[in-house]
Amino acid sequence: MSNPLPEIRRLLEGAKRVLIVSHVSPDGDTVGSALGLAWALRAEGKEVRLACADPIPLELAFLPGAHEFSTRRAGDEEIIFCLDASDPARLGALYDAEAFQRAPVVNLDHHITNTLYGDIHWVLPLASTAEIVLEVIRGVGLSLDRAVATCLLTGIVTDTRGFRTPNTTAETLRHACDLMEAGAPLAEITEAVFDHRALRTLRLWGAVLSSMEWEEGLLWAELPLALLEAYGATSEASKGLVNFMSTCAEAEITVLLREMEGGQGVDVGLRARPGYDVSAVALAFGGGGHPQAAGCQLRGSLQEAKERLLPALKALIAQKA
Amino acid sequence: MSNPLPEIRRLLEGAKRVLIVSHVSPDGDTVGSALGLAWALRAEGKEVRLACADPIPLELAFLPGAHEFSTRRAGDEEIIFCLDASDPARLGALYDAEAFQRAPVVNLDHHITNTLYGDIHWVLPLASTAEIVLEVIRGVGLSLDRAVATCLLTGIVTDTRGFRTPNTTAETLRHACDLMEAGAPLAEITEAVFDHRALRTLRLWGAVLSSMEWEEGLLWAELPLALLEAYGATSEASKGLVNFMSTCAEAEITVLLREMEGGQGVDVGLRARPGYDVSAVALAFGGGGHPQAAGCQLRGSLQEAKERLLPALKALIAQKA
Predict the structure, then answer these.
(1) Does the beta-carbon distance from A211 to B212 stay under 8 Å?
(2) Mean per-residue pLDDT, A63-73
(3) How far away is chain A from the Cα of B219, in angstroms, using its nearest Cα?
């Protein structure tokens, strides 16, 4: 696709009011990208409004402007930026076909599955959308100050799990280096987004980890509601737990089965070493995801979920062995 | 201190046999630095021998040459490099005053507490010794191939806990970027050094995490020998545990008290949020370290160690509050 920077520059020259929209279930990349772009545009005198259909997670509250996101739909803005959202449905209730016809929509994203919606789209297979925003800021000639750099580096750090995902390249590190030189405090960002687990969360993780079961490459654990309650924790506390379990050297495939509230069934998180595709299993049970990280939700009890799921996963391992 | 590169270059020109020594309780930085330098020198036709008083940890076995380290003391080598060792005592039984008089000793280190021993010393406050070796390789004009880059990037990654320590700078990221461009596989390194915990280690961590205690900012846990034995684990399994505990949001200071084998007393790991200096406490108990990460060993039982140590740490927190 051709480089859309000249067109973005032209659109911005004629516009005063800008709307930036982040995707539902916001993460550090969609929020950091939105805030980074917002501060860069404000330094040019633009009026920027931030929107997201869901609340911003607590661990991102340290970002300048994190409290500004609203759920208000597009109004009289002259440009709409959609960040890190691979299709309009990812904007949730904030997608407004009419408003999106009225103003030019700029779609910036790093997901190769992006549907290329919008009047201008720039989809690059980088490790984060924040890096595409960095390209826009540089290409358009906006200023890269400490606030902008902090927000963008947060996008890189969260989407690469601290430079640990396989798509972290030399280019990713160079972008991160540039942002640190512009004043972004890497250690503070890392501490804010990774090093803050509640005491009750850590104790709950302990209980789950010590009860893990393993058979021929398959590692699994259950998280019954009663255990959550015993530690005064909510389902939020299980975030990251299956990733951590999957660091087990003996695990080819890792499963966390979490009992959902209100008898809604069981939420299943799946992780696999390279060479497996757990998204196919997740899909067969009505879920989805990536080959190495997928999930699904099953009706019924933890016991029933195990009986349905574990044999399928064991078969996957046996097939490869 | 003056740049010693010309002298290192001159020494290497006249030498054929090189000894590289890593420090006791070897970590990824001392091992990665040694191997990186070894492969760079071998590409120049040097005969390089690697030595370390202690065994190389399993998670570093993936590094090319990791199996080559021996405990044999200096022989007829014409240069001795000591890497990441702040004083000769850190070389353990491999320190040999006589041999170290016979051949020129080059001391490369990033610890500012380095005693500046050796005929040539180059101590820079970088995030890792691997980066100083990178400077030497570039300065002397040695080749930076994939094997060298892989070993050096492992040094950076392990000493910064994957770019998460506060001393990770833009320069650190630039060095890491350069090493990736030279072929170092960051994702493989990260997976090897961080994402491989034995099942019994993870279960043991679970037991310790679920038993953590907390009082007014102080988080602590005990690791009795009996617990290690119950999980079929060795003291090696506790590596990294106090770091993980210290991600607790409510913890100002974190302590892990590990009962040592053979009635040798208690090994204490200390971690603190910025603003504290736990190395002063560790020093008062005969240990040492950095303000945010320190350690010491106490005689007596776990109970006695707690009684001596915890009040001192609580006082530190109360003092700051």
Answers:
(1) no
(2) 96
(3) 9
Q: pTM, whole model, 2 decimals? A: 0.82
Q: Are residues A176 and A210 in the same domain?
A: no
For CA atoms B124, B130, B133, B137, the dihedral sign is negative
- Taking CB atoms and an 8 Å cutoff, what residues of chain A touch B207? 206, 210
The pLDDT tens digits for B89-98 are: 999 999 988 9
CB pair distance less than 8 Å for B205 and A203: no
- How many A-B residue pairs are in contact by the CB < 8 A criterion? 128
pLDDT score for A191:
86
Nearest residue of A to residue B273, measured between CA atoms: A191
Which CATH number is B166's domain given? 3.90.1640.10
Are B207 and A211 within 8 A, CB to CB? no
DSSP string, A172-193: HHHHHHHHHHTT--HHHHHHHH
Q: Do A34 and A118 share a domain, yes or no?
A: yes
Judgement on whether residues A26 and A167 belong to the same structural domain of the protein: yes
Please provide the distance, in angstroms rounded to a whole number, between the alpha carbons at the two ends of chain B: 40
If you average pLDDT over residues B3-29, what whole number do you get? 95
| For B176, nearest residue in chain A (alpha carbons) | A173
Range of the domain at B68: 5-194
pLDDT in tens, A226-253: 999 999 998 889 988 999 999 999 999 9
ipTM: 0.80
Residue of A nearest to B231 (CA): A210
The average confidence (pLDDT) of chain A is: 94
* pLDDT of B1: 54
A307 and A185 share one domain: no
User: Do β-strands A17-22 and A79-83 pair in parallel, antiparallel, or remain unpaired?
Assistant: parallel
A109 and A210 share a domain? no
Q: How many domains does chain B have?
A: 2
Compute the distance between CA of residue A271 and CA of residue A254 in angstroms, rounded to an integer: 5
Q: What is the tens place of the pLDDT at every residue in A94-144?
A: 998 898 999 999 999 998 889 999 999 999 999 999 999 999 999 999 999
Contact A250 B162 (CB under 8 A): no
Task: Determine contact: B245 vs chain A, CB below 8 A.
Answer: yes
* pLDDT at B71 exceeding the cut of 60: yes
Name the token pair of A60: 């991102």
Give dist(CA A207, CA A196) in Å, integer: 19
A248, B199: Cβ pair inside 8 Å? yes
Question: With a CB-CB cutoff of 8 Å, which residues 201-230 of chain B face chain A?
Answer: 202-212, 214, 219
Count Cα atoms within 13 angstroms, Cβ side, for B191: 14
Domain boundary among B173, B194, B215: B194
Degrees (nearest 5) of the Cα angle A144, A148, A149? 80
Do B59 and B147 belong together in one domain?
Answer: yes
Same domain, B119 and B49: yes
CA-nearest residue to A172 within chain B is: B177
CATH number of the domain encompassing residue A256 = 3.10.310.30
Of A172, A194, A216, the last residue of a domain is A194
Clarify whether residues B91 and B229 are in a common domain: no
* pLDDT tens string A117-131: 999 999 999 999 999
